[in-house]
Amino acid sequence: MTSMTDSEILTKVGAGTPMGELMRRYWLPALKSSELKADGDPVRLKLLGEQLVAFRDTSGKIGVMDHRCPHRCASLFFGRNEEGGIRCVYHGWKFDTDGNCLDMANVPPHQDFKHKVHAKAYKAQERNGLVWVYMGKADEAPALPDIFANTFPEDDCNITFAMRECNWLQGLEGDIDTSHLNFLHYGSMGSKDFEPNDPTRFGAVHRDPEYKVADTDTGTFYGAYRPAENGLTYWRIAHFMFPCWTLAPFIDFNHYRLARAWVPLDDTHMMFVMIGAKEGPSAPSGVDDLLPNTTDWLGRFRVAANKGNDFLMDREVQRTQSFTGIPGIHQQDQAVTESMGDITDHDWEHLAPSDRMITMTRRRLLMAAKALAKDGTLPPSADNPAAYATKRGGFFLAPEQRPWPDVYDAQLATIADAKSTVAAE
Ligand code: FES
Ligand SMILES: [Fe+2]
After folding, report:
1. Residue 69 CA to ligand 1 centre (angstroms)
2. Domains and CATH numbers, the chain
């Protein structure tokens, strides 16, 4: 580990790397529940650089395992998902979702050693439309993190997946960098282009917010602030939560139920996972067009606007209508973060005061990854799923004299008051 640079520690996620080991201490959202049907086709997926296969058995239980059969490594992707397990098509060995070998079909009963053989299976769990996978030691797995957005029933949620062809960290960092909003996404919009009551308009008045940042028990958070009107300040709050979650600030704080994960598939690909409300004031806009899924390792949830077609950029639209000429917020983010390269060269950067949250988050991640590698110190909130429950992001207006970070607690209390009033009615 000592030979790795800080940049490498932050970005490499394979087994045995400091960040890879950190990621293996948390549950990761890996699939939509709807991708797996009982006794249906196994799905290929990558996670933390490992090639995995996922399937749902006859009883509905989910198996996520290394795709290599423990006999002689034929891929279980080609397996038959039949009655309570997956059967390798090479010599017929069969495994249940926990990796137990149920049948060693090509070996006579007196030579059978199936009780000694295990497929490398990871712990998997479902909650409200999302399949979570824990890639650490199964007996060390905590409970699923109480991420607020994932506590709502699947029918009431919009769960979006979109693959991005770059390192996970640069994807995540786009979500904790509020000042790009009024360039990349709204660069051509003045304050008059927003609804008169929409506080977002103050972002167009002052495109150069100041930032406050702080550590939390789950990671870091920032408040970006600008003057508003009538003695009020316009705040945008976002969290980074270990290991790869953000609560982005583009929704009204008082209606916030959004969470976004930037899940490393390997060092140069990630899956964006967004859990939001299906409708109403907290419903986020999704991803415009996805290509049909393929069975490739990286064939799921590919965005139709991609680097092969310059993200459908239209120069005439850029000249006359939008800042980028690229249609769709997600695609605009996708274009710039992929354009930074497979893995951003951190030596090339010149971080500014607007990047304070990025600097602080990198530092927190580095400290946690190094401490885990050095003496096994458990990273933040890995054993505290409840710590995630109360975190919120979003924008709001507050009296300008209210100091940071009290302004956040005061706004949280407003929501709690509103909720208890509703409950009492
Ligand atoms: S390789 Fe799978 S049963 Fe032989
Ligand atoms: Fe963005």
Report:
1. 6
2. 28-140 (2.102.10.10), 148-424 (3.90.380.10)
